[in-house]
Design goal:
Blueprint (H helix, E strand, L loop, with lengths): L1 E5 L3 H6 L5 E10 L2 H12 L12 E3 L27 H6 L4 E4 L5 H10 L2 E4 L5 H5 L2 E8 L8 E15 L9
Parallel strand pairs: 1-2, 2-3, 3-4, 4-5
Antiparallel strand pairs: 2-7, 5-7, 6-7
Amino acid sequence: MKKVNLPLNRKEIKELKAGDLVLLSGKIITGRDQAHKRLVKAILKKEKLPICLKGQTIYYVGPTPAKPANVIGSCGPTTSSRMDEFTPILLKYGLIGMIGKGNRNNEVINAIKKYKGIYFVTIGGAGAYLSKKVKFCKIIAYKDLGPEAIYELEIKDFPAIVWIDSYGNVINS
């Protein structure tokens, strides 16, 4: 397994290949359908975004509330294809990495290649396990969306697979 520190940079991304097993550590943001929709709407209206997308890795997750003494509740990945319509524009505006589950459409694959991004897949159905890899959690935007708000997370040794590399190579399931 390769240890990957976040935030990512383009040089590191170039070295990762589809099929690589990785342990991700560092800061990421979260977002699901409604947060993606708001971000893209703001971009199209040329409004100021509530977060900086440049160099960010986003985890497609809507965490459950944390139990006492836990940083976060269960936080398993959301199906990534639900974000496909929004992903190319977010990559254009600086998003660099994505973490989720499942395949992406051809438009997303081409955008990942064009903007030299990367897509990781993590373990579906293992939200309780993945929550143990989160060391810090706070809402940073769109609090009114509840679990679909944008959170900042700090993760440590978060398991993933490079599913689509910056060259557009894809693992097919």
